[in-house]
Each structure stands twice: as C-alpha cells, then as structure tokens.
Design goal:
Length: 306
C-alpha cells in the first residue's frame, strides 16, 4: 500500500474519536453544553434545532443528517426555540454512567455526540489547522455516508449485540475521518499548511514520497520530478501551499517521528538518528534541538518524568 500522509498525521496525533452519548427531545427545549478543551462532534439523527455558538452573533440551523465539529473551547446551545430557558448539560447528564437523556416527551428530536482525544505532545498539529466550526449539511455529497454511519451507531447503541462496544468505537472513528475528508474537499480557502498540502493533488506525489521513506536523502529535483514540475515551479508552489519549503517539510516530519520514537521507544539516540536518515548522532541532535528546543536525551528524560 502506498504512503498515506493523512493517516500518518492522524496516527502521530493519536486522534481517537469517542462517542459519549446523546439525547432525545420533544416540545420546547434548550440545552447548553459547556466549552471543553477537546474537539467535539455531533450528529442530528432526527428533527431539527437551532444552534448558538458562544461568540457568534447569528444562530445556525441543524437538520436531520447534519454533522458538526467544534474544534475550539466554546460553549454552545442547542434548542427547539432559542427563547426557551436553557438547562445545563451537566445537570441533564448527571449521574454515574449516564450518557443519554430525554427532554420533554422525546418525540421530535434525536442527537448523538462525542469528542476526540488527542496526544498531549502533538495533538495541536491537528487541532490548530482545523476551522473553529465545521458544519456538514445533509445535502452535502457525503451525506449518504454520514447517514449510514450514524444509523449504524444508533443501532449498535440500541441493539446490545455482541461486539457492540468495539463496533461503536470503529464506526465513531470512521465518522470523524469522514468529517475531516469533507473538510479536505471543501472549496473554502484553507491557510497554507499541511492540511492544505494534503488536499492538493499537484504535490501529493511528493508528500507520499517523503512520508513513505523519510530516511531517504530526497533532493528537490527528485520531488519535483515526482510531481511532473520543474524544480523552481515545484519549490514555489509547495511553499505557497504548505507554508514551508519541501525539504523543510521533510525535516519537520522527521522531527515529529523522532519525538514519537524518543517518547515511546528505548532505542539509543544514535539508532533513532540513523532510522531517520542522519549519518551522525551529532547532526541529528543539532537538528532536533533547533526544532524542539531540547536535546534528544533531555527530551526523552522529560517525557519519562511527565
């Protein structure tokens, strides 16, 4: 299988989506969810509601089949009527192990939601490049996929089938990946960075090459040839899209991999250096210290103590 830079970064950030619960509602209702320092996602299974995000002057409308992703620490209100007094989510879901709730008669509206766990060290590599709010309406091209996934999640939660817990975990992760894929394909402007680079087919061959063999001493000419561009055109276009030069991107990716190896493995620093294409431990240590601010040994020691 060819290299997949997007999967590489999801693995590096340890992005893990978790379904945490949901609620049904009927009649006039409103519920306020607190801000959290985590990416939150949700899907409207049935009915429709208003959503009011903290700091946003204009409320939005969510309909059955819509999916949302909130990447910033903001509270929000979901309501059948924004003039209705909002109850706090913490009181609605209070109680040991309580993950579902019913507001009113529960006949008109259904919602499921959760959050995304990220690695403490490199989670911001993902969270910082996403827009504060992603709303994917039921009319989007990916709507059938979202509907199927949400229907399966609801069915797994209700059926108590063997393996339901694992199935729910896998389906939730796939739902999160589909949301990110929809964002990658959005026509909206994306700031220069790795997310925009991954979505750009013109430089995809270069990214796959670097991710597939980060230890190789890639030349600008080789990467440009893989993308069927001249060296100058490729270098200028890559920097415009990714925000850094191609070989700087390669160095940064090596450093991310080095951080992970130093945190999670016990191989000597010299072995880590060779695995990432450095012919000497000192050259690797100098590059790592410039990028991280600590020597590899100091970084590993701090990671063990934390």
């Amino acid at each position: 299988m060819s290299a997949d830079p997007f999967s590489d970064i999801l693995k590096l950030t340890r992005a893990q989506a978790l379904l945490t619960g949901g609620f049904t509602a009927g009649g006039p209702w409103a519920i306020r969810f607190p801000g959290r320092d985590k990416i939150k996602f949700f899907a409207v299974v049935k009915g429709s509601c208003w959503t009011q995000l903290e700091g946003e002057p204009v409320p939005g409308r969510l309909n059955a089949g819509d999916v949302g992703l909130l990447t910033v620490n903001r509270s929000y209100v979901l309501a059948s009527d924004l003039s209705a007094p909002a109850v706090e989510a913490v009181s609605v879901f209070s109680g040991a192990g309580k993950t579902t709730a019913v507001l009113g008669d529960g006949r008109d509206f259904a919602y499921v939601g959760g959050h995304v766990e990220l690695d403490r060290a490199r989670g911001r590599l993902l969270s910082d490049v996403l827009p504060p709010w992603i709303h994917i309406p039921a009319a989007s091209p990916r709507a059938p996929t979202f509907r199927w996934l949400v229907d399966q999640l609801v069915g797994e939660g209700a059926g108590e089938l063997p393996g339901a817990q694992l199935a729910t975990t896998q389906l939730t992760q796939l739902l999160f990946i589909q949301i990110l894929r929809a964002q990658l394909q959005a026509v909206d402007y994306k700031p220069a960075g790795w997310l925009r680079a991954i979505a750009d087919p013109r430089i995809a061959p270069a990214l796959r090459s670097m991710h597939g063999d980060p230890a190789r001493s890639w030349s600008l000419n080789e990467l440009a040839k893989a993308c069927a561009m001249s060296r100058t055109t490729f270098a200028e276009y890559f920097r415009k899209v990714a925000g850094v030069a191609p070989l700087t991107y390669l160095t940064e990716w090596r450093m991310y991999l080095a951080e992970r190896a130093l945190r999670e493995e016990t191989a000597p620093v010299a072995v880590v250096a060779r695995s990432l294409g450095y012919t000497s431990e000192s050259a690797f240590s100098n590059a790592f210290k410039r990028f991280v601010g600590k020597s590899p040994k100091a970084y590993r020691s701090a990671a063990v103590d934390s």
